[in-house]
Each structure stands twice: as structure tokens, then as C-alpha cells.
Write a structure and sequence with these properties.
The chain is an all-alpha fold. The chain has 4 helices and no strands. It has helices at residues 2-18, 24-43, 54-73, 84-99. The radius of gyration is 18 Å and the shape is elongated. The two termini are 27 Å apart.
């Protein structure tokens, strides 16, 4: 996930510098994927793939902040808009990026299953 995020971020910056335009989705998702991937590398099985935990939310929130910083550095918030409504939609992007990590567990497949540290502990079905 980290490598994919690095690739998306590098592609975004290459497009921004060479063609003076970039994909907004890649500019947002690249840094989020980098930070979530680092979280998975550092925390291993404590970050489940089948749901969400508080740890995943923290790393995701940090990734969203990284995505917002990336958009800022790309000049996303300084560009001209055709209307006030378009400006408000652009300003809603960072708000949504932050708020998405506070949605209830059911939006992410329920609470994530974390493998018990002691293999002799019984596994309870969900």
C-alpha cells in the first residue's frame, strides 16, 4: 500500500510540474495510502484488513491530514473558481476527508478482528 501511495503521489507531482494539471483523486489518495501503509508496516496485525479499529482511525486521520497538506502544496486552495458554489465544494473536500474517519464502525465492515497475542486464547466468532 505504501508503494502504491508513493507512486500515486509521485505521479501527481510529475503531472503538476510537467503538465500543470493533476488528478485530484490521486493527489488525495496517494498520501493517505502512504500513511496507512506505514501504519500497517509498523503495527502489523493490530491494523486489521476486515474492519476498523481506533488505531486504523488514527493512521487514517493522519493520512487525511497528509492528503490535505499535499493539496495545499499543489495549490488546490488557491486556484480560480467559476462560481462561489464551486469554491464551497472545494473547501468541503478537506472537511469530508477528516470526518470520514469518525463514521460508525458499520460503514467499514464492523469492528476489525485483531489476532490475539496469545495463540492459546480462543477465537470468538463475530
Amino acid at each position: 500500500m505504501t508503494l502504491v501511495g508513493l507512486g500515486l503521489t509521485a505521479w501527481t507531482w510529475q503531472s503538476a510540474v510537467v503538465r500543470e494539471q493533476y488528478g485530484m483523486k490521486a493527489a488525495i489518495l496517494g498520501p493517505v495510502a502512504v500513511v496507512l501503509g506505514l501504519g500497517m508496516l509498523l503495527n502489523g496485525a493490530d491494523m486489521p484488513l476486515d474492519g476498523i479499529t481506533q488505531l486504523t482511525r488514527r493512521w487514517g486521520l493522519a493520512g487525511s491530514v497528509a492528503g490535505i497538506v499535499n493539496l495545499y502544496l499543489l495549490g488546490f486552495f488557491d486556484r480560480a473558481h467559476r462560481s462561489a458554489a464551486a469554491r464551497y465544494v472545494d473547501l468541503a473536500v478537506p472537511v469530508v476527508m477528516i470526518l470520514v474517519w469518525f463514521l460508525p464502525d458499520r460503514f467499514y465492515g464492523g469492528p476489525g478482528y485483531v489476532v490475539p497475542a496469545d495463540p492459546s486464547e480462543p477465537i470468538e466468532p463475530r
